[in-house]
Amino acid sequence: MSAELVLKTIKEKQIEWVDFRFADLSGRAHHITLPAKEVDEDTFVNGVAFDGSSIPGFRGIEESDMVMMPDHGSIYVDPFTAHKTLNVFCDIFTPDGERYERDPRSIAVRAEEYLKESGIGTAAFFAPESEFFIFDDVRYESGMNKTYYSVDSEEANWNTGRSEEGGNSGFKIPVKGGYVPVAPMDKQQDIRSEMCRLLEEAGIRVERHHHEVATAGQAEINFRFDTLTKTADNLMIYKYIVHNTAAQYGKTATFMPKPLFGDNGSGMHVHQSIFNGDTPLFYEKGAYANLSEMALHYIGGILYHAPALIAFTNPSTNSFKRLVPGYEAPVNLVYSKGNRSAAVRIPVAAVTPKGCRIEFRTPDSTANPYLAFSAMLMAGLDGIKRKIDPTKEGYGPFDKNIYELSDAEKGEIRSVPGSLDEALNALEADYEFLTEGGVFTKEFIDNFVDLKRAEARSVAIRVHPYEFGLYYDL
């Protein structure tokens, strides 16, 4: 879509405001809104100015002027504003017209360009399965003399005995008992369907939705795969629509990986494949899981670089509350067909040549999608270039439940890092695959590590309520 067509859309849909959006390093969206009458072709040439020093991890106050350059191919009408608003994704540029190296979306664009320049393929396709919780109430506080959090849900197992006005209606979701039950156990059918309707209106093709395994309102909506940057854009829209639809229903949605202790967390399983034009490059009939040698090398790159990769795919302290054995969390750095206990799973049910893909199950939705997808692609491409054979490297295939292996057998399997700090250490030790073709820069990685270490420190130095039970009486 050209700038001219965007302006035509503004006129035809009687748009009053145009909202220009970008993502910061953590993946949070920011926006500046212009009256539609002030948006013209020059806006798409000169961009929209903003203060980069006010965005965490961007620029210092002495060099704060930055420019949002709108991508006219990434527009959708905002379904939540009282005044008709058109949302536009933007790339970040410096005032002298250079792409800003810390702009996550620009990194995704460079990753796609690098794939084409490599001669390996013309497009990488991604499809995330981003899980979330819908709660009725959330409260949290961290102060000098107290710290706590509390969430609640009408579906929650802990509410079987709660007295409610009019009586308790029962039908609560058991712990680990929430996978695809019907109503009245599943009380969130309508809210998920409304989310899907709005996603479709925004141009995102929804494939299905359902209740997920955990109690207290865990959900998943799957949408159609697309190219790397476009899928990252779609995930940003997805999270925006999920959050705001929940708010309209008087509820609250979170993509935190582990908001509940003792039940399954929320992951973001990422399906991915490479095509050359219309030809799928990951398919070879009759091979293991019908995977081509290229696909196996891609898996080899993902698993070899996984400890460093996880700094981008699981970049929160809360991520590592999910990445523990026993909760369907893929902590084992192996690959397998159809096996959900492996970090890399190859779907085998109802798969066509064009649908042949690999699924990296470790990530979660605290990841910035532009950075996470780019890092995964770069790891996979490095595996292809270096012909990393995952079988020879000891990454499988493992076609049995890894959680049921003996301790000795489990000891032979590499695991994910145990904390955010460990993942950041791994990234500092293994980052060169990311800087190929100038996709990531060393300066960006150092800045990202500093930002995330500060988050880890801020959590580590605070008193935890469970420590009172462990140590108060000593």
TrEMBL record:
Domain GS beta-grasp: 13-97
A Pfam family it matches: Gln-synt_N
Cofactor binding notes: Binds 2 Mg(2+) ions per subunit.
SUPFAM superfamilies for the chain: Glutamine synthetase, N-terminal domain, Glutamine synthetase/guanido kinase
Enzyme class: ligase
Residues involved in Mg(2+) binding: E129, E131, E212, E220, H269, E359
Keywords: ATP-binding, Cytoplasm, Ligase, Magnesium, Metal-binding, Nucleotide-binding, Phosphoprotein
Catalysed reactions, semicolon-separated: L-glutamate + NH4(+) + ATP = L-glutamine + ADP + phosphate + H(+)
Residues bearing PTM O-AMP-tyrosine: Y403
Gene Ontology terms: biological process: glutamine biosynthetic process; nitrogen utilization
EC assignment: 6.3.1.2
Keyword Magnesium in annotation: yes
Record: residues binding L-glutamate: N264, G265, R322, E328, R340, R361
Protein family per UniProt: Belongs to the glutamine synthetase family.
SUBUNIT field: Oligomer of 12 subunits arranged in the form of two hexagons.
Protein known as: Glutamine synthetase
Species for this entry: Paenibacillus anaericanus
